[in-house]
Amino acid sequence: MKYLHLLALAGISLGTPAAAGTVAVHVVDAQGRAVPDAVVTILPAAGLPTGPIRFPWGVKMLQKDIAFNPHVLIVPVGATVAFPNADKVRHHVYSFSKPAKFELKLFGRDETRSYTFRTAGAVALGCNIHDAMSGFIKVVDTPFANKTGASGDARIAGVTAGRATLTVWHPRMRAKDNEAQFALNVPSAGETAQQIRLALR
Amino acid sequence: MTALATLPHSLIARVARSLSAKLTLFYAVLIAGVVLLVLVGAKTGISGYTERMIRGEMASGAVVFDRVTTMRYAQLGDASQVLAADFGFRSAAATGDAPTVASALDSLRGRLHLDQAFYVSTDGAVVGFRGTLRAGEAEALRRVLDEGSTRGILQLGEQRFNAAAAPINAPVTIGWVVFANALDAGELARLARMSAIDLSPQIVAAAGLTADERSGRIVERFVDGQHLLIQASPIDSFRRDQPQMLLLRYSVTRAMGHYAPLLWLLLACGLLGIAVAVAGSWILARRIVRPIAALDAAARRVAQGEYAQVRVDTRDELGTLAESFNRMVNDVGERERQITHMALHDGLTGLANRTLLREYLSQTAARSAAGRQRALFCLDLDNFKVVNDTLGHPVGDALLCRVAARLLAFAGEGFVARLGGDEFALVIDDAGRSLDRAATELLRIIGEPCVIDGHRIVPGTSIGIAIIDGPDCDPVTLTKNADLALYRAKHDGRGGYRFFEPAMDAEARKRRQMELDLHDAIAGGQLSLMFQPLFNLSEARVSAFEALLRWNHPTRGLVSPADFIPLAEDTGLILPIGEWVIREACRAARHWPDHVRIAVNVSPVQFRSPGLSAVILQALAESGLAPHRLELEITESLFIDNPAATLSSLHGLRDLGVRVALDDFGTGYSSLSYLRAFPFDKIKIDRSFIMDLLSSDGATAIIRSITTLAEALGMETTAEGVENAGQLDILREQGCSHIQGFYFSKPISEAHVAAMLHDDAPPAMRLAS
């Protein structure tokens, strides 16, 4: 038992992912209101676990009711995102964002286009026909990523314990590249709750 | 200097004295006040209107500016939004293709005639700005754009722009296009022309204004003598950290300047109005004052005794006043004449009075005589008092009127005056008849009997005449002289006339002096009594002394009773003198033997005075003298005026117990009836009979008849003025009981009386022989 304990200590000091904790983030705006669709990513100092990254919500950006659905989609680097059109009208999806500049010209109902995102970063989606349509795809290179729900809460479980960098991104955040970074210690077990206050436009 | 200082005083004095000046000044001041009011009112009204007008224009000016700029912003905004929506532009901007963006902006600027068209990216990079931005301006721009500013006044450096911005959404906002037009002097001038007045609009930084100005209210400023109205209105500022304001200003002074000619015209009209008012009120005042001055002048003339009338030529109040004045002057004149007549005429007879006589005399005396005979006649009715007393005053008055009428008829052109009472005066100015004839004629005319109220009356008069013989005759002297002559005429017997002689004047003066001296005589002890004995022939002894009054005048020596007794009777001094005599006589007689009486003469005046009995009683009481030893001697004249009253008085005296003797019997109006009427104790035979005794047999017969009569009536007889033995013998022979006279003894002093009574040998011896 005593040995194991020592190992655990060594694991921490060597950065070996010997343990993982859960990080719960609550994002509010300057007025303290819950902020949904904020993307929280954690980059442990000990490094990322190897292996492909998969998120449970899939890689599909649906256009429905003249809107992108979901509004914010988190995908891992290299993911090919499908853009199915569920509307009766046609859409002309484009992105001028640096990580991915593309155009999916005029595609109609039940047509699906796709695009493979090879660089991490935020991609702002628009429709050249419908100026009001706006959607975002956050291309991440970490498995520890989630977005806040309507309550402004996001939970990321199984994060490598130890020092880590927590990044919060929101399309309307008043900051360079619309993101802010925080340092945190991820507990080896259990949960750490973080409250993050954002300045939004 | 002094002339200048005195000028206002004289002016004030002139204004204070002149009604015209007062009225004129009043109206001048009044109109000046009105003019001033009008000017002030006009000025106030104009400036109020001007200010309201300016305020209104300022309010609308701000609104106009707002609308115009809103329109401009709309145009700029529309243009910028068109650009911002352009996919190609968005693509260029999003991909950071600066040259493409710049060229696109450049071409658009040219096409839309913009002064500025530039792009600001969200990271603060500015593309396409013409000119250079100052440090921090790019970041400031980015910040305000980021904060959502889309339009407003944008100040960059010293320049101001109307700016509008539109965000470039790709689809998130990656930057903004800003279109701007310079807001230069020309643009402001174009704005200014939209207002009715030049409000000189200016865009200023709010920070440069005072809090008062920033409030948005219209504030007043006085700059370089100019009255300014300033209004600052907030306007959209592109940079909210640099609020801008539209400043409108207008000079009220300048606006009022436009009305200056109007005010000057008003002032000129006002001054003209004052001049017209002054001239008009002066003329009016002169027209009012001229009749007043005429009235004043007339009033002064009337005050000086002249007769003055004012010409009436208006029908207004002044005309009425002038008429009233004229009427008043006439009435006053009429009354004056009445008063003068009353003052100068006698109310009863209508003749001139003493005052008018005096005036007439002085005028007459001043006129040249020219050979005419002129004289003042003074008349006095004889016994007028009796007429008044017995027939009553109405008859007396009627008699006076009758006499007045006769005098007037007689005088012809002469002057007749009533001097008062029954005295009249007549001024004769007659060349025809002599004054003596005139006087005789007048006496005849007045003396004609007349019947008044059924009573037959024979008036009688005495006349004193003073001749008017030159201008030196003063009326007072003339009247006095005529009065003296009248006095003399009356004295000499009534019903005659006398001319004045200078001796009368001297005598009158002497009488006056004596009267004064007589006053002093009683108090000064100058009076004394002498006593002349009465000798009883049958008893051969002194039976009485007659008290004789003596006046030892300090300068004239002894004055004869004949000289002063009449005077004392005339003046009434006889009463105190008579009283003194009675008391003194009683006092002297009290020590005499009982058979010796004291005889005292009682003057008619004294006899008639009601106090005589009291005086006698008092004298008797004081001296203790028995009444029967006092003998009062009265004269016959008492019976002439009022015999009944005299008898009554005599009986009264007799009741006192005193004796009464009839003095000077045989002279005057001697009547035997008196002797029958009153039982006198004694009859004193007048000395005139005694003096004739030796030369006339008739005298002896008279003495005898008197003594016989007296004896028959039981009265004693005393012969007065016995001076020699011959007379004594006859008297004794004829039965006279008593004698008195120098032969026996002249009057002696009180001391000698005592001696005589004690030692009466010498006279007694002579009588006894």
Automatic annotation (TrEMBL), chain A:
It comes from the Bacteria. InterPro entries: Cupredoxin. Residues 1-20 form the signal peptide. SUPFAM superfamilies: Cupredoxins. Keywords: Signal. This is Plastocyanin. It comes from Sphingomonas rubra.
Automatic annotation (TrEMBL), chain B:
The chain crosses the membrane at residues 25-46, 262-285. Residues 372-502 form the GGDEF domain. Keywords: Membrane, Transmembrane, Transmembrane helix. Residues 511-761 form the EAL domain. CDD domains: EAL, GGDEF, HAMP. Residues 286-337 form the HAMP domain. It comes from the Bacteria. One of its GO terms (biological process) is signal transduction. It holds the Pfam family EAL. GO terms for cellular component: membrane. This is Diguanylate cyclase (GGDEF) domain-containing protein.
